[in-house]
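Progress narrative, work stream C.
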Amino acid sequence: MSVIITLSSSIIHTHPSLFTRVKKDVDIHILMISVIVPAYNKCDEIEKALVELIEVMERVGEYEIVVVDDGSYDGTSTVLRRLGREYELTCVFLERNVGKGNAIREGFLRSKGDIVVFTDADRDLPPSQIP
């Protein structure tokens, strides 16, 4: 069974106890965390976002990052193929844009973690917010 956490400013500000509860009840360092990152036409932003996310996750423990390219046409897939090799990311390439919800679902289906976290490729919320 996986614990699912969605990272968005509304959830963090509205429900900060969610993160406290996870930290107190479970030693997350012994659990694998999957971070799902849906991306659509983020060629200019995705590398910086993923490198920052990787730096944060390296301090957390066992993790995987699943990036879902939701049918981008701006070169995002080219950047992801390179980053996937460099950083051992799991990259999923959808042939056409199916929407953020479906992209998240595809990432979730490929994730292996005990805890699954969703975050956006635009870095509206800093990766440091991941517990």
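Work stream C, second folded protein:
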Amino acid sequence: MAELRPYQPGWRDQLGQLLMGNERASPVRRRFVSGLLGSAGLGQTGMSLVDLTPLAAPLSANEAYRDYQDGNYTGAALNTLGTVLGAAPALAVLGKGAKNLASRSVSLYDPPVKPPRPFAADYPAGAPADARGKLTHTIDGDPITARYVVGRTEGGGGDVALPGEALDEIAKAGTGEGIRVLPQSALGRDVGRAVFRPDGTPKEIAISSKLTPGQSSKVAAHEVGHLIDQMASEIPTAGLSRELTPLYDALNTGRERASNFMRPQNLKYTGDDIPREYMAEAIRAYMADPNYLKTVAPKTAARIREHVNANPKLNRTVQFNSIAAPVAGVAAGGAVLAGSDDAKASPMASEPPPGAVLSDEPPADTGSGPLVVTVAPNRGQGNGLRTLNNVLAGGDGLRSAAPGGGALARLGQNALSQRELDAVDEPTRQRSPLYAQGAAPMEPASMLGSQAILGLGASTLLRPRPVRPDESLEEQLLRVLREGGA
């Protein structure tokens, strides 16, 4: 059984920690230290100035010894050669891109069981299904095309976990062969390994022959999680730490607790490997128990669906579906899909443009002055602004949004209910070139991104204007857009 040990920093990491200081370092300081040493205290970050000096020799010797202890013989060999002055930078460049993501512990646990939600609560307005009752689209609107679907698969049915045999099929789709079982001696201290070529394409997945059946299935699922993550171009973990940290702890200790979490660093993962371990375990949890991940980590579940379900490298083999919230849907093509209470994964938001003003008051007619953006966190204003983003950016959702157009017309009075906002927003966001931003949740960061769009020449859009009796609401809105607010 693999030994659970606390992370012990090497010499390079210790120097990095010394230069970073005890206080929370700024991004500028972190970049400086990383460029100087190749580490900011938590694992190597790449080639550095130190690698061009005599100090590279003892640092490489220390790293070679640590790699040898961990069973990473390739890394040990490269670092041994790196002790020759001048060789370390060249070897760093040669080795960059090759990736070896390994399991170091067999102490993996199944997700804790959570109460399931009834199907009627998930799809209150009906679910798109074929004549056999099979769902045709995920809750996010992506067509279901995969051989294996994790989560909801049938109208009225429960969440379905990934069957065990599917792990081998996913491995074959990625590497061309199934999961290999190797002698423990071939894996060093690792119990499983996902190997990727220098260009990032998957090469193989292997697990130890010493594992019990229960252990091997969990380790294999973890490595398949790495495979899915890499084929999805590394699913971003930004903004998910509050979900990923307790999730990782529960899956590696079998306990749910509020503090003193176990982290990848406790298994000696460093640098860029840390977020990849978090995401591999999240994917393993999703495959094992979709209801669990939705319950304890809804943003993480949404992030996985966002990066996997529409990915042509993956969506013929595996897709993730989950459950949706009881909110009003908007008819589109006959079938009705309700929105999701799985919070959408947030993209990084931009700052407001120069001249934009944040206000707690309702929007006012500012003439040619700066746009006054209302901040109303409890009124769903983020979704309303996002809807206007889609309209301003050329999304063609106005016709589909006509049933909820009255809500959009009342945006200026800040008098919208959450149900009305959802009804307007759902058909517009998927048609907009800002779809990736439109998938953001109602959070201040997302609202800032919305305000950045609104500040670019839209200052008169909310100004009161005469109503023409011969025009429908849709025609009035289109006229406003064509006239640029005149």
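Residues 357-483 form one domain. No further action is required on this item.
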